[in-house]
Amino acid sequence: MSGAEENTFPTGPATPDDGTAGPRSWIGKAFSSVSLSAAIIVMLSLGGVMYTLSIGAAPALKEFGLGFLTAEVWNPVTSQFGAAAPIAGTLETALIAMLIGVPISVGIAIFLTELCPEKLRHGFAITIELLAGIPSIIYGIWGLFVLAPYMQRHIQPFLIDRFGDIPIIGNLFQGPPYGIGILTAGLILGVMVLPFITTVTRDVFLTVPSLQRESAYALGATTTEVIWNVVIPYSKVGMLGAIMLGLGRALGETMAVTFVIGNAHRISASILAPGTTISASIANEFTEATTPIYTSSLFALGLILFVITFIVLSVAQYMLHRIKKAEG
């Protein structure tokens, strides 16, 4: 090929020369405008929610100040309100849900992608995905009538007997076995986040190039070594995103938690004791709020939950950015 022929390749954007690029360009511009409009609508909706919560919460925050975040009291009769107990309950139940849900979800994803026989893989995957479609009230009813009695008769007495006398750790497992409480709510949330984390993690594992797996096997690696040294390192960014998706669900879940947490506005060192969460408090008491300061305090709880969720997602995005940057 001569030098003149080499210079015939286009070096810039294509220009319409046959009458078809014009309509395509118009469609592209229209699609860009629609996409931009959708993004703007989402941002405006987010800002509208933030504005509404801020306006509603302003009287309570003005009345109680920063003490609203640290006060444990919640007494509608004396109009004294504090968010410490709901905040603690929200964080505790979400943490328990993650401690339970993440290892199980990752284990299921590994089984489905690396170990499960081909004939059973589709059936298992469909079953896991169906769990995501069950309404939260069904989980709440199951938790109240099945899980809580079982916890009261078997699990909580076992934990109290075995761990209640251990220094420091024993504080987590003291008190009467009510059945309902922080631990039971965390277990419900752990079950509820399973399908979300499992499905996303499984899809991420499937993106691992077969060449990398086969190369590791060709070098003599076992299945366990391939999973730990190839699959998980390649998928860690997607796994983190799946975990954050589950954490967001755990922080904001309302109905199922309301059934089993006990709805007690107090902070206890024991995870067996009844408690409450921000979303459960709002759901339980919004219709009972008869004074402006009571209603405003519930708005303030919603604003706090909004901020917590925003911070969690922001931290997740920062971590994903750092991981991608480290990988180049």
Automatic annotation (TrEMBL):
One of its GO terms (molecular function) is phosphate transmembrane transporter activity. This is Phosphate transport system permease protein. The chain crosses the membrane at residues 34-61, 81-112, 124-148, 180-205, 226-247, 298-320. InterPro entries: MetI-like, MetI-like_sf, Phosphate_PstC, Phosphate_Transport_Permease. Belongs to the binding-protein-dependent transport system permease family. CysTW subfamily. It comes from the Bacteria. Residues 87-316 form the ABC transmembrane type-1 domain. It is a multi-pass membrane protein. Part of the binding-protein-dependent transport system for phosphate; probably responsible for the translocation of the substrate across the membrane. Keywords: Cell inner membrane, Cell membrane, Membrane, Phosphate transport, Transmembrane, Transmembrane helix, Transport. PANTHER family: PHOSPHATE TRANSPORT SYSTEM PERMEASE PROTEIN PST (PTHR30425), PHOSPHATE TRANSPORT SYSTEM PERMEASE PROTEIN PSTC (PTHR30425:SF1). It is found in: Cell inner membrane; Cell membrane. GO terms for biological process: phosphate ion transport. It comes from Varunaivibrio sulfuroxidans. SUPFAM superfamilies: MetI-like. Residues 1-21 are annotated as: Disordered. GO terms for cellular component: plasma membrane.
